[in-house]
Amino acid sequence: MHRLFDSIVSAFLGVLLVHGSAAAQRTTISPITRADVKAYAEILALDDEQVQVFEMLHNGYMGEAHRIRVRHDQASQEVKATWPALGRPDPEAVAQAMEKWAEAEVAAFRRNLALQTELFEDVRAVLRPEQAQRMVRVERMRRRQVLLPGVDLSWTRVDLVTSLERAGVDTRRAELQDAIEQYEIALDRELARLVPFTERYIQNTARMKKASERSLMIKTMDELYDRGRMIRGVNQRHARLIGAQLAEPERTLFLAQADMQAFPHIF
To answer: What CA–CA distance (Å, rounded) separates 155 from 174?
Structure first.
């Protein structure tokens, strides 16, 4: 039985190495795009000169993000080169390969988070006081972009602000500001807890190599489900609250867009 479990876990971990991230919890971070810069600039109400500065800073950011990706890919290739045959795993070889994989994943995850923080601090330096007050909304938006895709449960990948925009609702309307801000704050609180969990997820995945540690897999997946359940609860609760602020047909369009995000495999 232990040998069978070793083979199953080894195959599971092999898939992680091949695809570069965990199947249920995404650990890679997509870089900030030019479209993101445009969206952030609109939130901050930047003037043309400030937009040019942001774009210049973003170019530097993208260069460093590319270097992080190259180093990560090189480390992953080195691990793959040492990966044993999945059908006949050597526990020691599996352990060593996964430890190297975890080191590369955690290093890339931390550096990408630090890099976007550095970019935002540089942008903050050119903001006027009234613009700086809006920076928290940009930071919340970025956390939603980075962390919501990481948990694959219904309603966990929903961004209700995006649902509003796709429904054609002007999110700058005064009567919606309080409901949107309360949603962003509540969701951001849950997303903040995903950052340390993601690192634990990577490290625990690396340890799922022995039959004696199969309980760790169960514990890790249970914690992943609990994190997702909390995010789902926030999204469902605030979908109702925000929907109550809308008249028809906006309410129906908004809820339909939220459902499409909640169940992407159906729509």
So the answer is: 26
Burial class from Cβ neighbours inside 10 Å (0-12, 13-18, 19+) for residue 134 reads middle
Beta bridge partners of 25: 151
Q: Each residue of 52-86: pLDDT tens digit? A: 999 999 999 999 999 999 988 888 787 777 766 55
Helices 214-243 & 2-19 angle (0-180, nearest 10):
50
Site of tokens 């352990």: 95
Cα–Cα distance between 74 and 67 in angstroms, integer? 11
**Matching residue, tokens 């479209």:** 35
pTM: 0.76
Within its chain, how far is the Cα of 105 from the centroid? 14
Backbone conformation region of residue 197, classed left if phi is above 0, alpha if psi is from -120 to 50, else beta? alpha
Closest among 33, 218, 28 to 105, alpha carbons compared: 28
Structure tokens at 195: 């950052």
Q: Which two tokens stand for residue 9?
A: 């876990």
Yes or no: say if 180 and 55 are a contact pair by the CB < 8 Å rule.
Answer: no
**What is the C-alpha separation between 105 and 79, in angstroms, rounded?**
11
